[in-house]
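Bug #77: duplicate submission created two jobs. Keeping one. Sequence:
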Amino acid sequence: MKKYKTLIVEDNPDNLRDLRFYLDEKPHVLVVTKTVSTFNHAIDLLLEESFEVTILDIELPDGFGFDIPGRVPILNIGEIVFCSSYGDKHYEKVVNSDYTHFLIKPISKEKICAMILDLEKAFTAKREPEQFIALFEDLPSAKKFLVPKTDIFYIEYQNELSYFHYRKNGNNNLVAIQKTGLTNLLNERLNDRFVKCNKNCILNVDFFNEHEPYFNEGWIANMPNGQKIEISRTFKDSVIKLKGIS
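Kept job's structure:
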């Protein structure tokens, strides 16, 4: 397993201790090679040395950690994880930015594990971009993030938006959006396990094993999130062929 050279920028000794403890207690993918505690020290180090991951506190004694990425070469800072607390005065600015990795204090083993999974996904997406698709939260902030195509159950098209129903960490009821049409998704962005099942929906055939008869010789597919998706007669043969149903 590849390990990634990691810098921690954190001025609170307790938070730094917790980070080191949870990262060091198991052979995770992050190897902490340097730690610094101030804005200026972080700038000086990142101008001279490169890291694959930088875990960056936003409240530093001599500056705002959020400003560091704009002051150093992007290749030196690598993937950025911003550390913040809900009470920080800059919290809203950070979570509504274009950055995708966050660690919300207080630090815990569960949060560190989730952070590592997100980072592994980001590195895999760089190596194998065709395996992921960039989606947006179905919220006013509309933050962008990556989802493996193999975790998408189905996609519904409504009101000029495509709604992606997917899974993550055992949760089967997640929804994200993209402003694109189904035809464009099928032609350019999805893999060969997706097929149109009715005029407003694309189905991942790997996620339905049960179906039942429906109106006008169609089917209803039972999905892992508890929803029932129509497979219309027009598209049923394509679904049968891709699924390999005899």
